[in-house]
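Q: What would this chain look like folded?
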Amino acid sequence: MNNPNSPAIAAHKTDKRWLAMMVLCLGALMIVLDTTIVNVALPSIREDLGFSEASLAWVVNAYMLTFGGFLLLGGRLGDLYGHRRLFIIGLAIFTGASLACGLAGSQTFLVAARAIQGLGGAIVSAVALSLVTDLFVEPAERAKAMGVYGFVCAGGGSIGVLLGGVLTHTLDWHWIFLVNIPIGVIVVGLSLMLLPDSRAPHAEPQLDIAGAITVTTSLLLAVYAIVNGNEQGWISLHTLGLLGLAVALLAIFIAIEARVRAPLMPLGLFKLRNLSTASVIGVLWAAAMFAWFFLSALYMQLVLGYSPLQIGLAFLPANLIMAAFSLGWSAKLIMRFGIRPTLMAGMTLVAAGLALFARAPVDGSFMLDVLPSMVVLGCGCGIAFNPVLFAAMNDVSPTESGLASGIVNTAFMMGGALGLAILASVASSRAGALIAAGQPQLTALTGGYHAAFLIGTIFAVTAVIAATFLRTGNAFAGNGAGSGGH
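A: My prediction, written as C-alpha coordinates:
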Protein backbone atom coordinates (compact mmCIF):
# COMPACT_ATOMS: atom_id res chain seq x y z
CA MET A 1 0.00 0.00 0.00
CA ASN A 2 1.39 3.44 -0.95
CA ASN A 3 2.32 5.88 1.76
CA PRO A 4 0.12 8.99 1.22
CA ASN A 5 2.91 11.14 2.62
CA SER A 6 5.61 9.78 0.29
CA PRO A 7 7.51 12.25 -1.94
CA ALA A 8 6.02 10.69 -5.09
CA ILE A 9 2.43 11.08 -3.87
CA ALA A 10 3.13 14.62 -2.64
CA ALA A 11 4.67 15.55 -6.00
CA HIS A 12 1.62 14.12 -7.81
CA LYS A 13 -0.73 16.19 -5.63
CA THR A 14 1.40 19.29 -6.28
CA ASP A 15 1.39 18.66 -10.04
CA LYS A 16 -2.40 18.21 -10.05
CA ARG A 17 -2.88 21.43 -8.08
CA TRP A 18 -0.79 23.38 -10.55
CA LEU A 19 -2.68 21.80 -13.46
CA ALA A 20 -5.88 22.96 -11.75
CA MET A 21 -4.26 26.38 -11.32
CA MET A 22 -3.62 26.50 -15.08
CA VAL A 23 -7.32 25.77 -15.68
CA LEU A 24 -8.31 28.61 -13.33
CA CYS A 25 -5.91 30.97 -15.08
CA LEU A 26 -7.27 29.99 -18.50
CA GLY A 27 -10.82 30.70 -17.33
CA ALA A 28 -9.76 34.00 -15.74
CA LEU A 29 -7.79 34.95 -18.87
CA MET A 30 -10.87 34.45 -21.05
CA ILE A 31 -12.86 36.78 -18.78
CA VAL A 32 -10.13 39.44 -18.53
CA LEU A 33 -9.46 39.36 -22.28
CA ASP A 34 -13.08 40.26 -22.93
CA THR A 35 -12.71 43.47 -20.94
CA THR A 36 -10.25 44.89 -23.47
CA ILE A 37 -10.44 42.74 -26.63
CA VAL A 38 -13.57 44.70 -27.58
CA ASN A 39 -11.83 48.08 -27.48
CA VAL A 40 -9.89 47.68 -30.72
CA ALA A 41 -13.02 46.44 -32.51
CA LEU A 42 -15.24 49.31 -31.26
CA PRO A 43 -14.89 51.47 -34.39
CA SER A 44 -15.79 48.44 -36.57
CA ILE A 45 -18.78 47.61 -34.34
CA ARG A 46 -19.83 51.26 -34.43
CA GLU A 47 -19.74 51.34 -38.23
CA ASP A 48 -21.47 47.98 -38.68
CA LEU A 49 -24.31 48.45 -36.17
CA GLY A 50 -24.68 52.25 -36.35
CA PHE A 51 -23.78 53.23 -32.78
CA SER A 52 -23.24 56.88 -31.87
CA GLU A 53 -19.96 57.62 -30.06
CA ALA A 54 -21.71 58.08 -26.70
CA SER A 55 -23.92 54.97 -27.05
CA LEU A 56 -20.89 52.94 -28.20
CA ALA A 57 -19.62 53.12 -24.61
CA TRP A 58 -22.49 50.79 -23.66
CA VAL A 59 -20.81 47.92 -25.52
CA VAL A 60 -18.16 48.12 -22.79
CA ASN A 61 -20.34 49.50 -19.98
CA ALA A 62 -23.00 46.77 -20.17
CA TYR A 63 -20.28 44.19 -19.51
CA MET A 64 -18.46 46.22 -16.88
CA LEU A 65 -21.53 47.13 -14.85
CA THR A 66 -23.00 43.64 -14.50
CA PHE A 67 -19.48 42.33 -13.91
CA GLY A 68 -18.85 44.80 -11.09
CA GLY A 69 -22.38 44.63 -9.72
CA PHE A 70 -22.39 40.85 -9.26
CA LEU A 71 -18.80 40.17 -8.12
CA LEU A 72 -19.69 40.19 -4.43
CA LEU A 73 -22.91 38.21 -4.89
CA GLY A 74 -21.04 35.66 -7.06
CA GLY A 75 -18.54 35.12 -4.25
CA ARG A 76 -21.33 34.62 -1.70
CA LEU A 77 -23.09 32.10 -3.98
CA GLY A 78 -19.80 30.22 -4.29
CA ASP A 79 -19.50 30.01 -0.50
CA LEU A 80 -23.03 28.62 -0.23
CA TYR A 81 -23.23 26.21 -3.15
CA GLY A 82 -19.62 25.29 -3.92
CA HIS A 83 -16.87 27.22 -5.70
CA ARG A 84 -16.35 24.67 -8.48
CA ARG A 85 -20.08 24.48 -9.24
CA LEU A 86 -20.37 28.27 -9.53
CA PHE A 87 -17.15 28.47 -11.58
CA ILE A 88 -18.61 26.05 -14.12
CA ILE A 89 -22.02 27.78 -14.13
CA GLY A 90 -20.32 31.15 -14.67
CA LEU A 91 -18.26 29.75 -17.54
CA ALA A 92 -21.39 28.29 -19.16
CA ILE A 93 -23.22 31.64 -18.92
CA PHE A 94 -20.20 33.49 -20.28
CA THR A 95 -19.69 31.07 -23.17
CA GLY A 96 -23.37 31.12 -24.16
CA ALA A 97 -23.46 34.92 -24.04
CA SER A 98 -20.27 35.03 -26.16
CA LEU A 99 -22.11 33.05 -28.85
CA ALA A 100 -24.99 35.55 -28.67
CA CYS A 101 -22.55 38.49 -28.98
CA GLY A 102 -20.87 36.88 -31.99
CA LEU A 103 -24.23 36.46 -33.74
CA ALA A 104 -25.55 39.93 -32.80
CA GLY A 105 -27.02 41.94 -35.64
CA SER A 106 -28.44 44.90 -33.73
CA GLN A 107 -27.32 47.37 -31.05
CA THR A 108 -29.87 46.21 -28.45
CA PHE A 109 -29.09 42.51 -28.91
CA LEU A 110 -25.34 43.08 -28.58
CA VAL A 111 -25.62 45.26 -25.47
CA ALA A 112 -28.01 42.77 -23.81
CA ALA A 113 -25.69 39.86 -24.59
CA ARG A 114 -22.73 41.83 -23.23
CA ALA A 115 -24.63 42.37 -19.97
CA ILE A 116 -25.21 38.60 -19.63
CA GLN A 117 -21.52 38.05 -20.44
CA GLY A 118 -20.65 40.36 -17.57
CA LEU A 119 -22.82 38.32 -15.19
CA GLY A 120 -21.02 35.11 -16.15
CA GLY A 121 -17.66 36.83 -15.93
CA ALA A 122 -18.44 38.13 -12.44
CA ILE A 123 -19.27 34.65 -11.15
CA VAL A 124 -16.09 33.15 -12.65
CA SER A 125 -13.85 35.91 -11.31
CA ALA A 126 -15.41 35.92 -7.85
CA VAL A 127 -14.98 32.18 -7.24
CA ALA A 128 -11.66 31.76 -9.10
CA LEU A 129 -9.78 33.52 -6.28
CA SER A 130 -11.58 31.35 -3.72
CA LEU A 131 -10.55 28.23 -5.66
CA VAL A 132 -6.93 29.42 -5.64
CA THR A 133 -7.05 29.68 -1.84
CA ASP A 134 -8.78 26.26 -1.66
CA LEU A 135 -5.95 24.72 -3.70
CA PHE A 136 -3.02 26.41 -1.97
CA VAL A 137 -3.16 26.56 1.82
CA GLU A 138 0.56 26.97 2.64
CA PRO A 139 1.42 30.72 2.70
CA ALA A 140 4.50 30.60 0.42
CA GLU A 141 2.71 28.49 -2.23
CA ARG A 142 -0.40 30.65 -2.00
CA ALA A 143 1.72 33.78 -2.51
CA LYS A 144 3.28 32.21 -5.63
CA ALA A 145 -0.13 31.15 -6.95
CA MET A 146 -1.64 34.59 -6.32
CA GLY A 147 1.30 36.14 -8.16
CA VAL A 148 0.62 33.95 -11.21
CA TYR A 149 -3.10 34.73 -11.04
CA GLY A 150 -2.39 38.45 -10.68
CA PHE A 151 -0.10 38.34 -13.73
CA VAL A 152 -2.87 36.73 -15.79
CA CYS A 153 -5.36 39.40 -14.69
CA ALA A 154 -3.00 42.34 -15.27
CA GLY A 155 -1.36 41.06 -18.45
CA GLY A 156 -4.50 39.51 -19.93
CA GLY A 157 -6.19 42.85 -20.47
CA SER A 158 -3.28 44.16 -22.51
CA ILE A 159 -3.06 40.92 -24.53
CA GLY A 160 -6.72 41.44 -25.40
CA VAL A 161 -5.94 44.65 -27.26
CA LEU A 162 -3.47 42.87 -29.55
CA LEU A 163 -5.69 39.81 -30.04
CA GLY A 164 -8.67 42.05 -30.80
CA GLY A 165 -6.67 43.80 -33.51
CA VAL A 166 -5.55 40.51 -35.09
CA LEU A 167 -9.05 38.94 -35.11
CA THR A 168 -10.79 42.10 -36.33
CA HIS A 169 -8.22 42.59 -39.10
CA THR A 170 -7.97 38.98 -40.34
CA LEU A 171 -11.62 37.98 -39.84
CA ASP A 172 -14.18 40.49 -38.47
CA TRP A 173 -15.38 41.82 -35.11
CA HIS A 174 -17.79 38.91 -34.53
CA TRP A 175 -14.81 36.60 -33.97
CA ILE A 176 -13.59 38.44 -30.86
CA PHE A 177 -16.63 36.82 -29.19
CA LEU A 178 -16.86 33.53 -31.10
CA VAL A 179 -13.27 32.60 -30.17
CA ASN A 180 -14.47 32.20 -26.55
CA ILE A 181 -16.71 29.23 -27.38
CA PRO A 182 -14.12 26.44 -27.90
CA ILE A 183 -12.01 27.81 -25.02
CA GLY A 184 -15.03 27.86 -22.71
CA VAL A 185 -15.97 24.26 -23.56
CA ILE A 186 -12.39 23.07 -22.92
CA VAL A 187 -12.15 24.92 -19.57
CA VAL A 188 -15.49 23.46 -18.39
CA GLY A 189 -14.31 19.94 -19.23
CA LEU A 190 -10.96 20.37 -17.47
CA SER A 191 -12.66 21.98 -14.47
CA LEU A 192 -14.82 18.90 -13.95
CA MET A 193 -11.69 16.74 -13.91
CA LEU A 194 -9.23 18.85 -11.93
CA LEU A 195 -10.92 21.37 -9.63
CA PRO A 196 -11.80 20.44 -6.03
CA ASP A 197 -15.48 20.42 -5.12
CA SER A 198 -15.73 22.29 -1.83
CA ARG A 199 -18.08 24.60 0.02
CA ALA A 200 -18.08 26.33 3.38
CA PRO A 201 -19.49 23.86 5.96
CA HIS A 202 -21.25 26.48 8.09
CA ALA A 203 -22.29 28.98 5.43
CA GLU A 204 -25.49 30.85 6.24
CA PRO A 205 -28.20 30.15 3.65
CA GLN A 206 -28.87 33.85 3.15
CA LEU A 207 -28.37 35.88 0.02
CA ASP A 208 -28.32 39.69 0.03
CA ILE A 209 -30.36 39.88 -3.17
CA ALA A 210 -31.82 43.27 -2.22
CA GLY A 211 -28.30 44.68 -1.80
CA ALA A 212 -27.15 43.34 -5.16
CA ILE A 213 -30.23 44.70 -6.95
CA THR A 214 -30.09 48.16 -5.38
CA VAL A 215 -26.36 48.82 -5.91
CA THR A 216 -26.35 47.49 -9.48
CA THR A 217 -29.47 49.44 -10.44
CA SER A 218 -28.01 52.56 -8.83
CA LEU A 219 -24.85 52.37 -10.93
CA LEU A 220 -26.76 51.50 -14.12
CA LEU A 221 -28.92 54.60 -13.69
CA ALA A 222 -25.92 56.81 -12.93
CA VAL A 223 -24.01 55.69 -16.02
CA TYR A 224 -27.11 55.93 -18.22
CA ALA A 225 -27.64 59.51 -17.04
CA ILE A 226 -24.02 60.43 -17.77
CA VAL A 227 -23.92 58.77 -21.22
CA ASN A 228 -27.12 60.58 -22.27
CA GLY A 229 -26.26 63.87 -20.56
CA ASN A 230 -25.22 65.56 -23.80
CA GLU A 231 -28.41 64.63 -25.64
CA GLN A 232 -30.85 65.26 -22.78
CA GLY A 233 -29.04 68.24 -21.20
CA TRP A 234 -26.96 68.09 -18.03
CA ILE A 235 -29.45 70.11 -15.96
CA SER A 236 -32.58 68.61 -17.53
CA LEU A 237 -35.23 66.92 -15.40
CA HIS A 238 -34.38 63.61 -17.13
CA THR A 239 -30.67 63.68 -16.22
CA LEU A 240 -31.03 65.12 -12.72
CA GLY A 241 -33.95 62.79 -11.97
CA LEU A 242 -31.96 59.70 -12.94
CA LEU A 243 -28.94 60.85 -10.92
CA GLY A 244 -31.17 61.59 -7.92
CA LEU A 245 -32.76 58.13 -8.16
CA ALA A 246 -29.28 56.57 -8.38
CA VAL A 247 -28.21 58.38 -5.20
CA ALA A 248 -31.43 57.32 -3.42
CA LEU A 249 -30.87 53.67 -4.37
CA LEU A 250 -27.27 53.89 -3.15
CA ALA A 251 -28.55 55.21 0.20
CA ILE A 252 -31.04 52.32 0.38
CA PHE A 253 -28.18 49.90 -0.37
CA ILE A 254 -26.13 51.32 2.52
CA ALA A 255 -29.15 51.03 4.83
CA ILE A 256 -29.68 47.41 3.76
CA GLU A 257 -26.01 46.56 4.37
CA ALA A 258 -26.19 48.08 7.86
CA ARG A 259 -29.14 45.87 8.86
CA VAL A 260 -29.04 42.59 6.92
CA ARG A 261 -27.56 39.54 8.69
CA ALA A 262 -25.37 38.46 5.74
CA PRO A 263 -24.51 41.71 3.91
CA LEU A 264 -23.15 41.77 0.40
CA MET A 265 -20.60 44.37 1.53
CA PRO A 266 -20.08 44.64 5.32
CA LEU A 267 -19.73 48.36 6.01
CA GLY A 268 -17.34 47.77 8.93
CA LEU A 269 -14.55 46.87 6.49
CA PHE A 270 -14.47 50.48 5.29
CA LYS A 271 -13.15 51.53 8.70
CA LEU A 272 -9.86 50.00 7.49
CA ARG A 273 -8.01 52.97 6.03
CA ASN A 274 -5.95 51.11 3.43
CA LEU A 275 -8.93 49.14 2.08
CA SER A 276 -11.06 52.28 1.78
CA THR A 277 -8.25 54.28 0.18
CA ALA A 278 -7.35 51.44 -2.20
CA SER A 279 -10.99 51.21 -3.30
CA VAL A 280 -11.05 54.93 -4.15
CA ILE A 281 -7.73 54.61 -5.98
CA GLY A 282 -9.10 51.55 -7.81
CA VAL A 283 -12.00 53.61 -9.18
CA LEU A 284 -9.64 56.38 -10.34
CA TRP A 285 -7.04 53.90 -11.70
CA ALA A 286 -9.66 52.10 -13.80
CA ALA A 287 -11.15 55.37 -15.09
CA ALA A 288 -7.69 56.52 -16.20
CA MET A 289 -6.93 53.09 -17.68
CA PHE A 290 -10.04 53.12 -19.83
CA ALA A 291 -9.28 56.66 -20.95
CA TRP A 292 -6.16 55.09 -22.43
CA PHE A 293 -7.67 51.93 -24.00
CA PHE A 294 -10.93 53.41 -25.26
CA LEU A 295 -9.87 56.87 -26.43
CA SER A 296 -6.47 56.07 -27.91
CA ALA A 297 -8.00 53.24 -29.99
CA LEU A 298 -10.61 55.65 -31.37
CA TYR A 299 -7.97 58.35 -31.97
CA MET A 300 -5.73 55.97 -33.90
CA GLN A 301 -8.54 54.56 -36.06
CA LEU A 302 -10.77 57.59 -36.67
CA VAL A 303 -8.10 60.34 -36.77
CA LEU A 304 -4.88 58.61 -37.85
CA GLY A 305 -6.64 56.00 -40.02
CA TYR A 306 -5.02 52.92 -38.45
CA SER A 307 -6.46 49.46 -39.17
CA PRO A 308 -7.52 47.28 -36.20
CA LEU A 309 -4.32 45.23 -36.61
CA GLN A 310 -2.16 48.39 -36.58
CA ILE A 311 -3.92 49.54 -33.40
CA GLY A 312 -3.25 46.18 -31.75
CA LEU A 313 0.43 46.36 -32.71
CA ALA A 314 0.63 49.97 -31.46
CA PHE A 315 -0.34 48.66 -27.99
CA LEU A 316 2.29 45.88 -28.12
CA PRO A 317 5.18 47.85 -26.48
CA ALA A 318 2.91 48.81 -23.58
CA ASN A 319 1.67 45.19 -23.32
CA LEU A 320 5.20 43.85 -22.95
CA ILE A 321 6.16 46.50 -20.38
CA MET A 322 3.00 45.87 -18.33
CA ALA A 323 3.60 42.12 -18.40
CA ALA A 324 7.18 42.53 -17.15
CA PHE A 325 6.12 44.77 -14.25
CA SER A 326 3.12 42.63 -13.33
CA LEU A 327 5.16 39.40 -13.29
CA GLY A 328 7.78 40.60 -10.86
CA TRP A 329 9.24 44.06 -11.15
CA SER A 330 6.33 45.78 -9.42
CA ALA A 331 6.51 43.43 -6.41
CA LYS A 332 10.26 44.09 -6.12
CA LEU A 333 9.62 47.85 -6.13
CA ILE A 334 7.02 47.42 -3.40
CA MET A 335 9.44 45.42 -1.24
CA ARG A 336 12.20 47.97 -1.80
CA PHE A 337 10.28 51.24 -1.46
CA GLY A 338 6.88 50.33 0.03
CA ILE A 339 3.30 50.47 -1.25
CA ARG A 340 2.71 54.22 -1.15
CA PRO A 341 5.81 55.50 -3.04
CA THR A 342 5.48 52.75 -5.67
CA LEU A 343 1.81 53.48 -6.25
CA MET A 344 2.37 57.23 -6.41
CA ALA A 345 5.21 56.78 -8.93
CA GLY A 346 3.08 54.52 -11.11
CA MET A 347 0.06 56.82 -11.16
CA THR A 348 2.29 59.83 -11.85
CA LEU A 349 3.55 58.04 -14.96
CA VAL A 350 -0.04 57.23 -15.96
CA ALA A 351 -0.92 60.93 -15.65
CA ALA A 352 2.13 61.86 -17.76
CA GLY A 353 1.23 59.34 -20.47
CA LEU A 354 -2.35 60.58 -20.73
CA ALA A 355 -1.14 64.18 -20.81
CA LEU A 356 1.11 63.26 -23.75
CA PHE A 357 -1.90 61.86 -25.60
CA ALA A 358 -3.79 65.08 -24.83
CA ARG A 359 -1.43 66.94 -27.19
CA ALA A 360 -1.42 64.36 -30.04
CA PRO A 361 -2.17 66.26 -33.30
CA VAL A 362 -4.49 65.48 -36.19
CA ASP A 363 -1.53 64.46 -38.37
CA GLY A 364 0.27 62.61 -35.56
CA SER A 365 3.00 60.06 -36.23
CA PHE A 366 3.52 56.77 -34.42
CA MET A 367 7.10 57.42 -33.31
CA LEU A 368 6.52 60.96 -32.01
CA ASP A 369 2.91 61.00 -30.82
CA VAL A 370 1.82 57.41 -30.07
CA LEU A 371 4.85 55.34 -28.99
CA PRO A 372 6.12 57.70 -26.22
CA SER A 373 2.64 57.79 -24.63
CA MET A 374 2.31 54.00 -24.90
CA VAL A 375 5.67 53.37 -23.23
CA VAL A 376 5.01 55.78 -20.36
CA LEU A 377 1.48 54.41 -19.82
CA GLY A 378 2.74 50.82 -19.94
CA CYS A 379 5.30 51.59 -17.23
CA GLY A 380 2.80 53.49 -15.10
CA CYS A 381 -0.01 50.91 -15.23
CA GLY A 382 2.43 48.04 -14.75
CA ILE A 383 3.91 49.66 -11.64
CA ALA A 384 0.59 50.80 -10.13
CA PHE A 385 -1.56 47.65 -10.46
CA ASN A 386 -0.01 45.44 -7.75
CA PRO A 387 0.32 48.19 -5.10
CA VAL A 388 -3.43 48.83 -5.26
CA LEU A 389 -4.12 45.15 -4.55
CA PHE A 390 -1.48 44.96 -1.81
CA ALA A 391 -2.87 48.10 -0.16
CA ALA A 392 -6.40 46.63 -0.19
CA MET A 393 -5.27 43.34 1.36
CA ASN A 394 -2.77 44.83 3.82
CA ASP A 395 -5.13 45.42 6.76
CA VAL A 396 -7.51 42.46 6.47
CA SER A 397 -7.36 39.03 8.12
CA PRO A 398 -7.15 35.85 6.01
CA THR A 399 -10.86 35.18 6.60
CA GLU A 400 -11.74 38.53 4.99
CA SER A 401 -9.19 38.50 2.16
CA GLY A 402 -11.66 37.16 -0.41
CA LEU A 403 -14.23 39.82 0.44
CA ALA A 404 -11.55 42.55 0.37
CA SER A 405 -10.46 41.29 -3.05
CA GLY A 406 -14.08 41.42 -4.20
CA ILE A 407 -14.48 44.99 -2.96
CA VAL A 408 -11.37 46.30 -4.75
CA ASN A 409 -12.26 44.36 -7.93
CA THR A 410 -15.72 45.92 -7.82
CA ALA A 411 -14.06 49.34 -7.48
CA PHE A 412 -11.98 48.59 -10.60
CA MET A 413 -15.03 47.52 -12.62
CA MET A 414 -17.23 50.41 -11.53
CA GLY A 415 -14.45 52.94 -12.01
CA GLY A 416 -13.93 51.69 -15.54
CA ALA A 417 -17.63 51.86 -16.38
CA LEU A 418 -18.34 55.26 -14.82
CA GLY A 419 -15.07 56.74 -16.06
CA LEU A 420 -15.72 55.54 -19.58
CA ALA A 421 -19.21 57.04 -19.57
CA ILE A 422 -17.83 60.42 -18.44
CA LEU A 423 -14.97 60.37 -20.96
CA ALA A 424 -17.17 59.36 -23.90
CA SER A 425 -19.62 62.15 -23.04
CA VAL A 426 -16.85 64.75 -22.69
CA ALA A 427 -15.27 63.75 -26.01
CA SER A 428 -18.62 63.84 -27.81
CA SER A 429 -19.64 67.17 -26.26
CA ARG A 430 -16.33 68.89 -27.07
CA ALA A 431 -16.25 67.54 -30.64
CA GLY A 432 -19.83 68.70 -31.21
CA ALA A 433 -19.01 72.19 -29.94
CA LEU A 434 -15.97 72.44 -32.24
CA ILE A 435 -17.98 71.29 -35.28
CA ALA A 436 -20.66 73.88 -34.44
CA ALA A 437 -17.88 76.49 -34.34
CA GLY A 438 -16.87 75.56 -37.90
CA GLN A 439 -13.89 73.27 -37.25
CA PRO A 440 -13.17 70.40 -39.69
CA GLN A 441 -14.38 66.92 -38.68
CA LEU A 442 -10.94 65.47 -37.83
CA THR A 443 -9.88 68.58 -35.92
CA ALA A 444 -13.10 68.45 -33.91
CA LEU A 445 -12.70 64.74 -33.16
CA THR A 446 -9.12 65.31 -32.01
CA GLY A 447 -10.22 68.22 -29.83
CA GLY A 448 -12.84 65.99 -28.21
CA TYR A 449 -10.25 63.31 -27.46
CA HIS A 450 -7.86 65.94 -26.06
CA ALA A 451 -10.52 67.11 -23.60
CA ALA A 452 -11.25 63.54 -22.50
CA PHE A 453 -7.54 62.70 -22.14
CA LEU A 454 -7.17 65.73 -19.87
CA ILE A 455 -10.05 64.44 -17.70
CA GLY A 456 -8.28 61.07 -17.59
CA THR A 457 -5.09 62.87 -16.51
CA ILE A 458 -7.05 64.50 -13.67
CA PHE A 459 -8.30 61.04 -12.58
CA ALA A 460 -4.69 59.81 -12.41
CA VAL A 461 -3.44 62.89 -10.52
CA THR A 462 -6.31 62.52 -8.05
CA ALA A 463 -5.23 58.90 -7.49
CA VAL A 464 -1.70 60.14 -6.67
CA ILE A 465 -3.17 62.53 -4.08
CA ALA A 466 -5.40 59.77 -2.65
CA ALA A 467 -2.34 57.51 -2.26
CA THR A 468 -0.91 59.93 0.32
CA PHE A 469 -3.66 58.71 2.71
CA LEU A 470 -2.39 55.13 2.64
CA ARG A 471 -1.05 53.86 5.93
CA THR A 472 2.58 52.79 5.56
CA GLY A 473 3.75 49.43 6.79
CA ASN A 474 4.75 45.95 5.72
CA ALA A 475 3.29 45.25 2.29
CA PHE A 476 2.83 41.58 3.10
CA ALA A 477 1.45 41.82 6.63
CA GLY A 478 -2.07 40.90 7.54
CA ASN A 479 -3.16 38.73 4.63
CA GLY A 480 -1.36 35.54 5.43
CA ALA A 481 -0.17 35.34 1.84
CA GLY A 482 3.51 35.84 2.29
CA SER A 483 6.36 36.57 4.58
CA GLY A 484 7.42 39.92 5.86
CA GLY A 485 9.99 41.84 3.87
CA HIS A 486 12.88 43.85 5.23
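DSSP finds 17 helices and no strands in the chain.
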